[in-house]
Design brief:
With about 290 residues, the protein is mainly beta. It has 2 domains: about 130 residues, Sandwich (Immunoglobulin-like), CATH 2.60.40; about 110 residues, no CATH class. It is about 10% helix and about 45% strand.
Amino acid sequence: MKPHGKFMIIALLAAAFCFSLSFSVARADDDEQGGNIGGTEDLDVQVQMTPTSAAPAGSSIKLELQANDDDGGTQTDLELNEQGLPAGTYTVSVTLKSNGSTVQLGTFTIASGITEAEIKFSNQDEGENENDGDEIELPFPASVNPFDIATVSVSNSSGVVLFTADLTKVTTMTATLSANIAGTPGSTDPGATGSAVLNATALHSKPTGSVQISGQGLPISTPLNVTINGMPSNVRRASTSSMGTASIMITPKGRTATIASGVNLLQIKNVTLSNKSGSVLLSFKF
């Protein structure tokens, strides 16, 4: 009876471990960039916001978003440099790529006599909630992942949208995205390791750059499938070496400059290496 009881305890502990592991993997697969990553990721976007028909004549807003994610700890600065907005209170809202929801970042007030101002939303301790007339500092909400922002809008006190910016349309902005991500091994080769290095740039054009994937401790001389965001990548032939290593360069292809069907370098969320049977050998979350 005692050996049987010991066996039951071991089995229960093993089951608990497996449940914990699957829960962690499920949380990591959040269908968005940033967040709970293993490594570093940097984003820099600059775009001139588009005025609507309701925007005051002669007014303009330039937007800059800078974000850094270091192993899940994110630093964010979102700046709006406005010119020509009349005195009043304005609301800044964003929509999210992951679920399409709208989130209000906050409100700012332009005082009478101010012809231009810099409004900065930040989650860094720089004296948030300060208003020096032409320099306004506000907290960036902890609940918003800056890498998940699809659009930004500025509305007046009546709720009328005056300016918009679509951060998913790379041809309207300049953007850079870089990352150095550690790989997560699959269940068949728990000792596998690897890294993914991403460098992407868009200057009012389709993104250019590359993703360099490396892996060690993989099955030897094994053909690989490379998927990006769940879609087959444009890498046609990939395999591990006789030493169980892999080195794969992914670059944009064709007129669409994509790395997988409908996916450009700035849209990358995850990369998976699997064998021909579909078993995941190594994965990377951006």
